[in-house]
Each structure stands twice: as structure tokens, then as C-alpha cells.
Amino acid sequence: MKIWRIIQLTIFSLFCSVTLAATVPENFKIEVFAENVDGARQMALSDTGIVYVGSRRPGKVHAVIDTNGDFKADKTILVIDELYMPSGLTYKDGDLYVAEVDKILRFKDIDKHYDKSPKPEVIFDNLPDKSHHGWKYLKFGPDNKLYIPIGVPCNVCREADERFGTIIALDVKSGEFEYVATGVRNSVGFDWHPDSKELWFTDNGRDWLGDDSPPCELNRVTEIGQFFGFPYVHGKDVPDPKFSKRFKKDRGSMDFIAPAWEFQAHVAPLGMLFYQGKQFPQSYQNSIFVAQHGSWNRSKKVGYKIVNLQLDEEGKVASQQDFVTGWLEGEEVFGRPVDLIHLSDGSLLISDDGFSKIYRVSYAKPEN
Question: Residue 196: its pLDDT value, please?
Fold first, then answer.
């Protein structure tokens, strides 16, 4: 009886390893690039190929290193810990920039010091200190300014502090910033179109309007300072039960920028990028990849995957297809994707804070 039970468990384990593996399109492959990267959130690739990784609850920043170039990490080194939700980070000109909830830190010449307990300098501290939606996402834009989203400290509210619900662009030398987008509930991912240089960003929809409302969003900034509707309206046309009646009184008009694309409610779109690598087929060039982190309070879970969005000739989103699936089987979760970056060979890395892993997706041309 005991032997039969062992055989049953072995068969079940083998079955699970197949059916629960992440699935990618034909001729693509997904592998584990790194494990035990505690709470892996946003990633940044340095000039020497080191992948720096932020986290949220763990309060840590790691350096993940592939020493022999086989596209599997050999070392994961703790750079610093005990930070205030250092989810977002980015790399520029040899320096690593890390966002705590209330400030931006800079580690000079990070590749030379990541394993020596480096001490950062504070370069900007004019950020709210609220932890609810307070974790950040960072990238330098084409204008060399540091872009920082500031989420609202609530499910839905209208805050007197005008910094909440925005994306700002910071001049790191002068400390001056401007509002790039307002009326933004909680953006944890953005990128710039390779040709137009327009900023596109994800935004997480509010909770407690049901399983299927409101949609999460992908937005496009065509002019600096545009207003995207929060908290008065969600998606293209979902009025907020509490705030919609105040829209015209508060704003002076009912104008807002509608989403460039609506995702299913509660999928929690986070990191996004325009694919600019040379490894994937041409059809993916300049298309958008988005990490759907997954729902937390829906009656049936949704998300937990990577989707690809194709643009038409006018630069509008034409379609959405699943790209990486298999991290959600029924109601059981096996992956929580957060961020995506290119490696030098054109493959993609995907971080997973739920299971502290980083995956690599590559493509091999079929043999004729």
C-alpha cells in the first residue's frame, strides 16, 4: 500500500510539472533565470549586465549576476535592506536610482560597489510618505528626466495634496519636477513608444464595484499634464458612485483622456514595455508586453499572465493576445509577474514577487 502511494505521488508530481508549467507561443521558451530573489519587483540592467532588482515588503535590493553568460544567474547578492518599500529602481550612467515610498536614492558607480554595502545619497525627498499605493516604479525618459508615479493612498478618494494620483518628471540635477499626467489611480509600469516618444502607462482600476467593473487601463500621454479621469470616472465610461457627480464642479468640465486600451477588471497590469529587441519575430517589434499581476479580491481569480498588445498603423492598440500563461490553474496561483526588461540578446526577463523568481523568455527560429 505504501509503495502504491509513493507511485501515485510520483505520477501526480510529474503530471503537475507538465500541466502547471508556464506556456509560451510556439518556438518560444521560458526558463528560470534566477531563484530566491526575495520579493522580486522592478528590474534594471546595468552596462556590465548585472540585473538589479527591487522589492516591496522585504525592503531589499538585490544584484543578480550571470557570470558565465549562459543566461542563468550564478549569484544573487543583497545590495541593501531595511528600506521603505523599494519596489522601483532604474539605472543610468553607471548609477542606480532606487525609490523608497517618500524619497529617491542614488548609488553612485553601483557596479563597482554593489557587494560592499554601499551607502546611497538622497537626491529627492518631496514625495508623500503614505504606504498605501506608495511603492514606486522608475524610469528615465527620452528627455533624461526621472519619471515617478505617485499612487493615491486609498481605494478611491479625492486628496487635497495634488501630488497624489499623478506621474511626475523629475530633473535630478535641479530637483524641479512637472506633472506629466494627473487623474491616475495607481500606475506601476510605463514606457515610451520607440518612434513617437509618447509615454504609455498602466493603471490599476478601483476595487469594490463588482467582479467585472471597472476595467484596468493602458493609457497614452499625448500632451504634458493631461487628466485621466480618476476619481470621477473609470475606464472609458464607468462613473464613480461617490465622485462622478462632482466632476464638473471640481474640474470645470467633463473632459478627460480615455484609456488607449481597457483590460479585464482586477487583472492588475503592472510593468510594461515596447519590445525593441532583435530576437523575437518581426511581428513583435514595437508591440507592447504587459505583466498582469493578478486579482486579489475577485470571486474568481483573473490575470497572472503576460499579454502582448499589437498596434495598428495609426499607433492605436488593435488587439491583445496571451503570451505567457499557466501561472493560474483554477484558483491556484503559481506565478505573479511584475516587471519586464530586455536582455542584450533580445530575450525578456520577467520578475515574480509572489515566488521570488525571475524568468527568461527566448525565441529560436524553427529549422527548415
Answer: 97
- 275 touches 349 (CB < 8 A): no
pTM for the whole structure: 0.94
**Domain boundaries, given as residue ranges, for the chain:** 26-363
- pLDDT at res. 367: 80
CATH superfamily of 26-363: TolB, C-terminal domain (2.120.10.30)
pLDDT of residue 108: 98
Instruction: State the pLDDT at residue 364.
Output: 95
φ/ψ region of 5 (left if φ > 0, alpha if ψ in -120 to 50, else beta) reads alpha
What's the grid cell of residue 303? Answer: 490575470
For CA atoms 114, 120, 126, 127, give the dihedral sign.
positive
pLDDT along the chain (368 residues), means of 10: 39 36 95 98 98 98 97 97 98 98 98 98 98 98 98 97 98 98 98 98 98 98 98 98 97 97 98 98 98 97 98 97 98 97 98 98 89
Measured in whole angstroms, the distance separating CA 199 from the mean position of its chain's CA atoms is: 14
3-state SS record for the chain: CHHHHHHHHHHHHHHHHHHCCCECCCCEEEEEEECCCCCCCCEEECCCCCEEECCCCCCCEEEEECCCCCCCCCEEEEEECCCCCCCEEEEECCEEEEECCCCEEEECCHHHHCCCCCCCEEEECCCCCCCCCCCCCCEECCCCCEEEEECCCCCCCCCCCCCCCEEEEECCCCCCEEEEEECCCCCCCEEECCCCCCEEEEECCCCCCCCCCCCEEEEEECCCCEECCCCCEECCCEECCCCHHHHHHHHCCCCCCCCCEEECCCCCEEEEEECCCCCCCHHHCCCEEEEECCCCCCCCCCCCEEEEEEECCCCCEEEEEEEEECCEECCEECCCEEEEEECCCCCEEEEECCCCEEEEEEECCCCC
* Res 150: pLDDT: 98
